[in-house]
Amino acid sequence: MVRYKAIIAYDGTNFSGYQHQINGRTVQDEIEKTLSRISNQPIAINGSGRTDAGVHALGQVIDFSLPYKRNLEKLRFALDTQTPADIACKSVVEVPDDFHARYLVKEKVYEFHVDIGKPRSPFRRFYASYYPYPLDLAKIEHALADFLGTHDFTSFCSAKSEIENKVRTIYQADMVLNEAKDELIFTFRGNGFLYNMIRIMVGTLLKIGNGRIPADAIPTIIAAKDRNLAGPTAHPEGLYLKEVRY
Amino acid sequence: MVRYKAIIAYDGTNFSGYQHQINGRTVQDEIEKTLSRISNQPIAINGSGRTDAGVHALGQVIDFSLPYKRNLEKLRFALDTQTPADIACKSVVEVPDDFHARYLVKEKVYEFHVDIGKPRSPFRRFYASYYPYPLDLAKIEHALADFLGTHDFTSFCSAKSEIENKVRTIYQADMVLNEAKDELIFTFRGNGFLYNMIRIMVGTLLKIGNGRIPADAIPTIIAAKDRNLAGPTAHPEGLYLKEVRY
Question: Which ipTM score applies to this complex?
């Protein structure tokens, strides 16, 4: 068996999420179907982690093993063109047998896009969350810096999560306004993110920008370890898994 | 009656085009339905011109008359939010009774987007045409300049067109490569464009860039007044009606 690592992009709009489920179209199922057809035998893949329904990926990473050595560009092309049009394959490389797309993750980078234009762009309705209310961007910048470092992010994790250790390290948390000044793009880089963590961080930052949570509240919210103190969970269509580092 | 001019944006993906037709969902029908509901009587609109199925608009212009004077921002908001999510209303202004969105057009501006990345971006599959073959951008730049000025564009008009006067003036024809170097954005500004004209111009420019039509062929193709000498019609999903000037 030969082990491969592939970088995948997908438009999450018409998926029930990355991970296989009984009902619903998933990215994992579509890729496994294609690899199994190419290989004439059932092939299973590992992803770097799941993404929710509507969430996009610019650089999701998967691994899988195939019975024969393949030409890498031919394999990439097959994965790219034989999967549905909302999945693309950016690269395929050979990796050692013990590579694992989920267990060996060192860092993940996410983007979150917020359409702040009036009106909402019809071209972004599936590709950015919409926030039409006044925003003080300086307050958001101030609050973003308070996420940096190692913290217990219980307050920024879905109450549904069953994971025990909620300590994560954030290396980068920033925001840019696009040239047309009608879209905010947040970037978060960390050693891992909890369930809904970025969406809750962004939901909280927008409330801070709108003046309904104080700009210096993040340290207090983190310290409280209480999901109820943070803001709402921002919509999935703004979220992009941008890069996974090993 | 009070006459209004509105600037409309739409994602053309799920429309059979701008203009009313017996079968198929159209932009005109959706806007007329909304205005008629708001006004409790049938309201008809004029557009600056039709756009084909899959073609987008950033700045389509329409006009219509309503029986009462309306607050402009309330009317814009109603048109924006009561039409489906793939139509947005950017502005509404009052205009003189003799304003007409089609007859009084002075200039139109179109963009054409070409995804030249490998792989094709899943996020652009409805928003850019795809061209994966080698391109010499200098050849395209050279050929673009030959479109400028006043010419009979018979060679760049669908053979199906029944219009007699095919003389049009092009004021601007340029191309930029985006920052990621995986998308070409063409801009064309002229006093009018024939049916499929921009799509045939782009189809021809891509063949020139790929070396299959000489870079200096445009004047010869124009002079021949023969559709068969130009390149293929580029796909509709790359085309955007950007602005209409009066």
Answer: 0.92
